Amino acid sequence: MRKIILHLALASLTLLSLPAWAGEKERAAAIELVKMVVPHDTYDQMMQQMTEAMSQQFRAAGEKLPADFDKKIQAAVNDVMSYDDVLGWTADIYAERFTVDELKEIEKFYKTAVGKKVMKLLPELSGEIGKKIAAILPERMPAALKKHGLMPDEDPPVEEKAPAPAKGKKR
Fold it and tell me: Is residue 106 within 8 Å of 33, Cβ to Cβ?
């Protein structure tokens, strides 16, 4: 087992040191794979889950939000990162790391029963993971920021001075 972990670690380091390069064939194959794994409706579901989580965070922080906030925040997010943008970015990343043959193998996997189940559950799984992170991060982050010196523990206590002795009286 240790040998396997060592080989994987060495392979990862080797891959990290290689320059990123992807040809047109790799990118085309990656685009087809990404379209299959994350079709437009799946992307829309993921974005809705993300914007709902953002809305919950704003409300939990006591922000006063307009009644149509959810609709507007979703539109804003879509303006910032459209499906086509994310499709292209994802395809570029896959194309840099996989050959055409590897991309076709991944595509074959997603056509199996287990692969189809993964694709079907991916938005739900991502949503649940995002909700868990959104709930735990604000809880744990202040202590971690303090631990690493990025946030002061508390305001320093104000020292109280003893009252000055009244003039003319001896102690």
Answer: yes
pLDDT in tens, 109-160: 999 999 999 988 988 888 788 788 878 888 898 898 889 888 887 665 566 6
Q: Which two tokens stand for residue 40?
A: 């437009």
Rounded CA separation 170/3 (Å): 83
**Nearest-angstrom CA–CA distance, 90 and 36:** 12
Q: Which residues contact 36 (CB under 8 A, 6 or more apart)?
A: 107, 110, 119
Give Cα 88 distance to the centre of its chain: 18
Rounded Cα gap, residues 2 and 9, in angstroms:
10
State both tokens at 73. Answer: 């925040």
Q: What DSSP assignment string belongs to 4-50?
A: HHHHHHHHHHHHHHSPP---HHHHHHHHHHHHHHS-HHHHHHHHHHH
Token pair 């002795």 in the structure block, residue: 165
User: Domain map of the chain by residue range?
Assistant: 19-147
